[in-house]
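User: structure tokens for this one?
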Amino acid sequence: MLNKLTRILKTTILSVIVAFLLVVIFFLGVKIFFGQQIEEVITLAGYITIEKNNKDKNQEITFDPDVGLVKYPEYESKYANIEIEKINIKLPVYYGDTMEVLKKGVGHSSGSYFPGEGGSIVYMGHNSKNVFRNFSKLKIGDKIKIDTSYGKFTYKIYDMKVISETDFDELPIQKDKEILMVYTCYPFKNIGYTTKRYVVYAELEK
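Assistant:
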């Protein structure tokens, strides 16, 4: 009786192991043979969404050179475009950092300053192909242009680094110097949740 139970147990364990290996092989096969196509579909979906929202007009903002912004944009509304020629990027910028905003384009952290106000500006976007996937190609000295309804601003990159999502000290909010910080998830080709962020730091050109 004991030998029979042992044989049944061994057979069951072997069946489970074989089933597990078959599942692993199946998913590896899907990733190898169809991974590129799946990513292209996801990218295309994101591209269509962003292109659709690109047709929105920038929200008008009141800006006084002596005091800064007088009228701010509504939350989750588009107020600018960001252009990075080096990696062929031109995307809409929305005030806010919700998931809905990031589906449409680049988000602007509501706790940071606006272009032209003289302080820290924090932008973020997905690491998909049509957004910030190619951040690794950026070099110190490359330019980032922000075109708002109240003016155009150019920032020159002076640093890039990988940080943890909890390293808030690496995204300091201060009002003494106009710094643009743009970040995305890292590694760049990672699909799904990741705890690392790749940050590009740029200062306003006078």
